[in-house]
From TrEMBL:
It is found in: Cell membrane. The chain crosses the membrane at residues 39-57, 77-94, 179-198, 270-288, 300-321. SMART domains: AAA. One of its GO terms (molecular function) is ABC-type oligopeptide transporter activity. Pfam families: ABC_membrane, ABC_tran. Residues 41-325 form the ABC transmembrane type-1 domain. Residues 359-590 form the ABC transporter domain. It comes from Thetidibacter halocola. One of its GO terms (cellular component) is plasma membrane. Signal peptide: none annotated. InterPro entries: AAA+_ATPase, ABC1_TM_dom, ABC1_TM_sf, ABC_transporter-like_ATP-bd, ABC_transporter-like_CS, P-loop_NTPase, Type_1_exporter. The lineage of its organism: Bacteria, Pseudomonadati, Pseudomonadota, Alphaproteobacteria, Rhodobacterales. Coiled coil: none annotated. This is ABC transporter ATP-binding protein.
Amino acid sequence: MKLPFARRTARTRQALFRPVDRENLRWLWTRYLRTRAPWLLLVLLLIAGQGLVYQQFLSLTENGLRVIFEEGAVTQLARVCVLVFVLFVLRGVLSYVTPRLTAWLAANAVLAIRKDLIAHLLTLDLSWFERTTTGEIILRLVNQAEGMARFIGQSTANAVRDAVTIVIVSGYLIWKAPVLFTVAIVVIPVIVLVMQFVSHRIKAIQTRAQAALGDYMTDIEEMSNGMRTVKIAGQEDRERDRLFAASTGIRDLAVRLQATQALAMPSIDMVSAFVFVLVIGGGGYMVISPEYAFDAADLITFLLGLVILFDPLRLLAGYFAQLQSSMILLDGLRSLLRETPTIADRPGATDRFDPAGDIRLEGVGFAYDPEHSLFDDLDMVMPGGRTTAIVGATGSGKTTVLSLMTRLYETQAGRVTIDGIDIRDIRVRALRDAFSVVAQDIVIFNASIWENIRYVRPDATDAEIRAAAEAAEIAELMDRRGDAPLGPKGSQLSGGQKQRIAIARAFLRQAPIVLLDEATSALDQRTEEKVQTALRRLGQGRTTIMVAHRLSSVVGADHIYVMDAGRIIEEGPHEALMAAEGLYAAMFRSQKQSYG
Ligand SMILES: Nc1ncnc2c1ncn2[C@@H]1O[C@H](COP(=O)(O)OP(=O)(O)OP(=O)(O)O)[C@@H](O)[C@H]1O
């Protein structure tokens, strides 16, 4: 019978503070709190002051009672009353100053945590962002950081205050009546067991509650981003039901969490009632019995002491219950910081390379998902200063080639070189500075066209921005809209207008290598022709790599690669490919027939 119980206790005891919790707390302390140690010490002193106020109060009350019971001098009674009043004013002052100080300390610590999280987040690989939902990110940066502020600040300060009060008042009671106090604390093991049970459950519920909240935020983000599709497909009801279900899930978990946390306090209440019965009985007997030097004033003071202990004990129990939730939040924050970027500067990485040199893919192997490789042994050469085009069926890997060159993804075999230098030996910042990219997924911020173009080169002059806008055929719209923001994600612009902003950015950036991924696909034929001419001008003397479905736009390229399912199936200049009568020639003819 004994063994299973012992095992169970060992397991639950481990659950109260898991090794990871201890490690996380140590991290929180060394990284964010230790430097603030002098302030924390001051807080502790203020808190200890509050605890001492209670002890003094008890001692004064005892004196006051003696005056009443024994001597009956009114002046002495008045003195006691004044002192009690002064004590409570002092406590009032302390309980105003302490939270102000703790709130300030906590807010600063959380600001430091938030800054670290944001800075770390921006170092993570693109692939991490493609795996992680927006909800999970917001959850950490907003909710969990906020929760940490509460944990570090007010709740911990209060808990320390309560603990100090308990220690000081208990110390006083032990000194006054050790036997009676021993009777009172026999119930402590019961409290410990209840707390272990509660904390174990809270951790499990809080983990699920955090996941549910993250999913809910992701659902909201998806719904609001996809509103156009939702409305056209008439799926408002479905979205509503999805969000209702997610909200209901959160409600259920919140109720369960509160219910479990709330278990802590009534358990203390029940136990306290038992303690009072013991103390009134035992203490009363001691007063009545002549064997003990224990009078009515002693008993009343002791009972008052217990009453004073009662509230901090309840609050402390509540705090321990909350602490378990905070451990889950802390681990959530920590888990983000534990993510390490794989694409980072190698030791000794260089800034020195000639971006105008040839770009080569040598025996490149790559897979997004380990089960399905996309490239097995891919070789490509994009000569410096020339225009290379990559064409082929959708999903054949064209955009991925560009992603590997800019190190948004890392090759898993072989290497990519620029001017003969492995791009992994080049500093990531220096490598990316060498590229201007007009990608398929154009990011437009909710600012003016002007500001949107400037984004890629904040130090550009007004004249440079205007020239870029003119080259991209967007200057007229830019003037017309003035400072008006473009709506979230540029929702007030057409696809072609967004594309022209992206092209203007490429003009403004003036980087030595230009990557154009379906750069003009959304433009009408006349605008496309104008922009293409401008792009040819931009590409002069620069290495240009263009991905296009519309083959008419790659006719002028120096070299064309035709891709299929991650392999190069044909290559050469337009004329040679036409003469070869292969896939390219067939595609070109069929497009010519369709578009004229
Ligand atoms: N981030 C990603 N995670 C997982 N798989 C991806 C990712 N990006 C692309 N893929 C897959 O890799 C393959 C190649 O994609 P890629 O975007 O390179 O093709 P593409 O030739 O540029 O296509 P398109 O002409 O349609 O733009 C596709 O099968 C695609 O589903």
